[in-house]
Amino acid sequence: MLDNSHNNSLNSTCGNPHGCADGGVAQPRASGAGSDTRGDWLSPLLIALLGAMALGLVFFLAPLMARGRAGWGQQSGATQPGGAPAGQTDGAAGGGGQTGKPNDLPLGPRQDVALGDAPVRGSRNAPVMIVEFADYQCPYCQQMHPELKILQQELAGKVAVAFKDFPLAMHANAEKAAEAARCAGEQGKYWDFHDTLFHNSDNLEVAQIKQYARDLKLNQANFEACLDSGKEAAAVQKDQAQGKQLGVRATPSFFFNGRLFTGAMDYYTLRSLVEMLLKTDAPAAAAVR
What are residue 120's phi and psi, to 5 degrees? Predict the structure, then answer.
């Protein structure tokens, strides 16, 4: 579960916030009587030669740069001390979005991750179990939400996703949103409400959350009684405590068959990682009980 200025120092010398161009105005070269005309034919030739050399250099470097980007991958935002891309943490902004080969990703050691009563999308006996600790107001969690759904559609039956609540103190509405999803779950609508919350992560005031319950045609009286009483608060806090014990410090954090990865990643990397685990791992039950 994770935290999300342009330098204008050149303005005083360039007078342009977007950068500097070659300064000054070219002075016309004197010609006529007394001027040396021997270089007149050399200048165009020299310019043409330099232009051809520059063009050749561009064509030479472009494929090298493209291969470099593909091989090295890109990472946006900050990194945590352990090298994993930081998502969001209390009091700090960071970014995920890591790409690269699955073997290069900073996965933690395999741990036992108890599912308990966590909602699971997919079969609990799937070969790859992803346990996500996330926050409904975390933008990087929101970024990963559709990627996980696509992954499960394309690898149906091979991967399951369990969701654990890890609301951050910096997000005022995240904990109540987590409680609301559980209240909806009492009426068999957990995943519908879960998806609705992520689709509306900028609009999670309690009044708005209650409207989403109406839109989903829940029993409104039962839902509001559950939400207003804080009935599910202890369950949310239990998820948080478990996450901290397992080493979760930011959102989103994922356990891939028990191996911790913190931060967002692109879909290609996500799928490649799961496909690698499908080939190399023992059944997920060995790591997730």
Answer: -125, 130
